[in-house]
């Protein structure tokens, strides 16, 4: 009689639970994702997305949880990580809307909706929501969580070893590498050498660029007077400046009108007429060339006549010529011409080569 009584049946306890049916394990990252909303936390909702394979969580702050805002937030994640194969969600109006259905149809995504009021079916997302709430409460108490607080919780979760991942972190599984955190400073890692293939490719690119643009090596020293290319509405202008410090191989700190600005070597040129310090390469070359020319000129003036250096095809004077000219007083001829050497820098001819370097 009790089993057939309608009133007794309505007042009965919950039935015995059925056998647990777990989700099949995915085979790759971002194959199946679980989505849910956390909140409101001090009036703010958070869209939570968890990858079932790596347990990697994503969290987006949302002041409006309409269907259009939800679809927009998910598309931003899909642009970063690609389209998932399956999405698991509850039966919220955001997930049952036509816009959400259209997004899944366009991306070929299978949308699985869990039973209403049965959060256990979407336990992957529900579990992270619980972890998120407890983490925020530990950091901020009852205050509204800030963006910095959320970032701390996310980083801690992503870099914590997980037993279901064979003691690996979600970051290792999802990104294929360990995330660098402040704890990494306790054990500094030695920098590895550059890959030989990458180094050769980089050097070829530099040589090709230099050959195409006919680059000139130009260095500046501290104290050099330069013109710096400075933006001044509505265009660039050359402003007077002084090199204060060299940063790296091509960057310099230049003082312009009492302000220190950083400039690339391509944005600097020497001030003609004012020059720069004598230590610069260009002035050194000019001074050395002038000194060499002066020394050569003095040597030519003081040189003694050498009969071995007679002019070819010149007629040698005979005895009669010497006798006739002996009575003539010697006259001083014009001074020998000064030999001048060119200081032009000779460069090899660059011929056109259609084949790439």
Automatic annotation (TrEMBL):
Domain Integrase catalytic: 22-178
A UniProt-annotated Pfam family: rve
Ranges annotated as spanning the membrane: none
One MF term in the entry's GO annotations: nucleic acid binding
Low complexity bias spans: 317-330
Gene3D superfamilies per UniProt: Ribonuclease H-like superfamily/Ribonuclease H
Biological processes per GO annotation: DNA integration
Chain intervals for the UniProt region annotation (Disordered): 302-357
Annotated protein name in UniProt: Integrase catalytic domain-containing protein
Organism this protein belongs to: Ancylostoma ceylanicum
